[in-house]
Write a structure and sequence with these properties.
253 residues; alpha+beta; Fructose-1,6-Bisphosphatase, Chain A, domain 1; D-Maltodextrin-Binding Protein, domain 2; 2 domains; five-stranded mixed beta sheet; 8 helices; 34% helix; globular
Length: 253
């Protein structure tokens, strides 16, 4: 059995190591394009190397899947890493990027961490333990009125990738407080209840895994729509349970 409390400490140490590589490079690096057209910087690469070193030292039997360096070891029992989620923002000098860490067992997330370095905020939770931001418990909104709820979404091109452009157009018509808090920064705002719910389609496993465990642990609901076999990625709808029940249909079109 995994010691999740000890694993959470290791994840925090890995996030600290990532900050040590990322923050000195903020607004001081240039980006290159990967084969899929997404940007990458030396900060992404150095941060993932530092994270892997910390997590290997914690338990070398656990696998590691990272956005920049791929899979090593066991894919069903191990870590998922995204050193900089929101690299586009990072390369433009926008401070709303995050570092993501998840631990999976039998392929299911059991621990999640979202670090927001420029705000000095870190959300950590694991199975049965709830979620804390900088040590203080946080809870997902229980808002049910779509007229009052802030609803966030990923980039419009992600809806295109997921085959849900009509759903995105309907969102704009149906929800008056629709905001584009993209990437895992938006996820973090759901965890403390500021954003009531979010739709994030066309994302990768390392983007989805932390939220898949953190949102339920914080009292919310997270629905996963998996279209990876179609090349469309993963779609998440998460937040206030009453709103998620309504919002999930916008990605099913």
């Amino acid at each position: 059995m995994l010691d999740l409390a000890a694993a959470a400490k290791a994840a925090c140490a890995a996030a600290d190591a990532a900050r040590g590589e990322i923050l000195p490079r903020f607004r001081r690096v240039s980006a290159e394009l990967k084969s899929d057209g997404s940007p990458v910087t030396e900060a992404d690469l150095a941060a993932e190397r530092a994270m892997r070193e910390v997590l290997r030292a914690f338990d070398p039997s656990l696998g590691i899947l990272g956005e920049e360096y791929g899979q090593e070891g066991n894919a069903e029992r191990g870590w998922l890493l995204d050193p900089i989620d929101g690299t586009v923002a990072f390369t433009r000098g926008i401070a709303l990027f995050t570092t993501l860490i998840a631990l999976v067992e039998a392929g299911e997330p059991v621990l999640g961490l979202i670090d927001v370095p420029m705000l000095d905020e870190r959300y950590v939770g694991y199975r049965g333990a709830g979620v804390r931001r900088n040590g203080e418990p946080v809870r997902v909104s229980q808002e049910s009125d779509p007229r009052r709820a802030i609803i966030s979404h990923g980039d419009p091109f992600q809806f295109d990738r997921f085959g849900a452009r009509r759903g995105f157009e309907r969102l704009n018509a149906d929800f008056p407080l629709l905001r584009g808090y993209t990437d895992a920064f938006g996820h973090s705002q759901v965890l403390h209840g500021g954003v009531a719910a979010m739709l994030d389609p066309g994302i990768h496993p390392w983007d989805a895994a932390p939220t898949q465990i953190l949102v339920p642990e914080a009292g919310g609901r997270c629905v996963t729509l998996d279209r990876q076999r179609e090349g469309r990625g993963i779609g998440l709808v998460f937040g206030s349970p009453a709103l998620v029940e309504r919002l999930v249909d916008y990605l099913r079109e």
